[in-house]
UniProtKB/TrEMBL annotation:
UniProt: Mg(2+) binding residues: 192, 267
Source species: Colwellia psychrerythraea (Vibrio psychroerythus)
Name listed for the protein in its UniProt record: Phospho-N-acetylmuramoyl-pentapeptide-transferase
UniProt entry tagged with the keyword Ubl conjugation: no
Keywords, ordered alphabetically: Cell cycle, Cell division, Cell membrane, Cell shape, Cell wall biogenesis/degradation, Magnesium, Membrane, Metal-binding, Peptidoglycan synthesis, Transferase, Transmembrane, Transmembrane helix
Cofactor: Mg(2+)
Gene Ontology molecular functions: metal ion binding; phospho-N-acetylmuramoyl-pentapeptide-transferase activity; UDP-N-acetylmuramoyl-L-alanyl-D-glutamyl-meso-2,6-diaminopimelyl-D-alanyl-D-alanine:undecaprenyl-phosphate transferase activity
NCBIfam families tied to this protein: mraY
Bilayer disposition of the protein: Multi-pass membrane protein
Length: 360
């Protein structure tokens, strides 16, 4: 929006030409989302407290979590609002990829909102019934995958980029739709499972989004993409603004979500953020790198799968509790230790993911 305004005003005062620079808009997108989060955060927390929209804690979880009962939740609304407003202000709204990401963020956020609403307002412990949650995730994820396949302009947009391998670039064809669906829905649920401790999910999300800002920039820049031998996809450059908005919104939310948390994001935040990372990974052709950089999300998800599978097949549990962050808590690790160590692991994995740009 402001890009168009800047282009109009440039004819009267050339200084407004700065609005056309992607790097400038990326920085202002981060700061805008951060400011919105910091300014409206306390207001939202007070409103949630007034409406008694508090988190319900599982009785079978770590005892240290019982004190968190009643902590305001659905703080993901703050994250989503910050992202959407910042993107609408600073991104090039003629770019279809921007609208695809906004659609996915808002749609998955709506699913999470219904789930949270039923849990904390209608006091339905089951929330949105699982089959309906996955049904709507499937509708949105599959619909997005089909749309992206339909609008693909060339082979670069549907090729699978294999990390560390320069010459391996297989065409996915219709399997692009299948992969896109699983990446979006899978990442959405993986971030949701990770969101169990104060700040545990938001910091890896910030790190991965920041890394994808770099991936989007080089993928959408013909010289950099040729130099790094990665597919050149012009439309991805504008996703830098989207990624930096996620970073800014995440940092602002972390201000209130850091241990001990004043607010939780709820499913409205975690489902939307995970889906956003998934669809951005697809658009910049870095699905496999997302698997590396989002290793903490993968680890949390696998721990749940293994726990459930082991109990059903053998009648025995592998971990004291799943997701795996609860396992370490029950082993006696203080919550901040678990959180920070998972952050460190996430940082290492993100750096490895970034290294794939050059190590090919």
């Amino acid at each position: 929006m402001l890009l168009w305004l800047g282009e109009f005003l440039t004819q009267f005062y050339t200084a407004f030409n700065v609005f056309s620079y992607l790097t400038f808009r990326a920085i202002t997108s981060t700061l805008t989302a951060l400011f919105i989060s910091l300014y409206f955060g306390p207001k939202l927390i007070r409103y949630l407290q007034k409406m008694q929209i508090g988190q319900t804690i599982r009785d079978d979880g770590p005892e240290s979590h019982l004190s968190k009962s009643g902590t305001p939740t659905m703080g993901g609304l703050l994250i989503l609002a910050s992202i959407v407003v910042s993107v609408l202000l600073w991104a090039d709204l003629s770019n279809i990829y921007v609208w695809v990401v906004l659609f996915v963020v808002i749609s998955f956020g709506a699913i999470g909102f219904v789930d949270d609403y039923r849990k904390v307002i209608r006091k339905d412990s089951n929330g949105l019934i699982a089959r309906w949650k996955y049904f709507w995730q499937t509708v949105i994820g599959l619909g997005t995958a089909l749309f992206l396949y339909y609008i693909a302009q060339g082979p670069n947009e549907t090729a699978l980029l294999v990390p560390f391998m320069k010459e391996v670039l297989p065409q996915l064809g219709i399997f692009y739709v299948v992969m896109t669906y699983f990446v979006i829905v899978g990442t959405s649920n993986a971030v949701n499972l990770t969101d169990g401790l104060d700040g545990l999910a938001i910091v890896p999300t910030i790190m991965v989004a920041g890394a994808f800002a770099l991936f989007a920039y080089v993928t959408g820049h013909v010289n950099f993409s040729n130099y790094l031998n990665i597919p050149y996809i012009p439309l991805t450059s504008e996703l830098v603004v989207v990624c930096t908005a996620i970073v800014g919104a995440g940092l602002g939310f972390l201000w209130f979500n850091t241990y001990p948390a004043q607010v939780f994001m709820g499913d409205v935040g975690s489902l939307a953020l995970g889906a956003a990372l998934g669809v951005i990974a697809v658009l910049v052709r870095q699905e496999l790198v997302l698997f590396i950089m989002g290793g903490v999300f993968v680890m949390e998800t696998l721990s749940v799968i293994l726990q459930v599978g082991s109990y059903k097949m053998r009648g025995q549990r592998i971990f004291r509790m799943a997701p795996i962050h609860h396992h370490y808590e029950l082993k006696g690790w203080p919550e901040p230790r678990v959180i920070v160590r998972f952050w460190i692991i996430s940082l290492i994995l993100v750096l490895i993911g970034l290294a794939t740009l050059k190590l090919r």
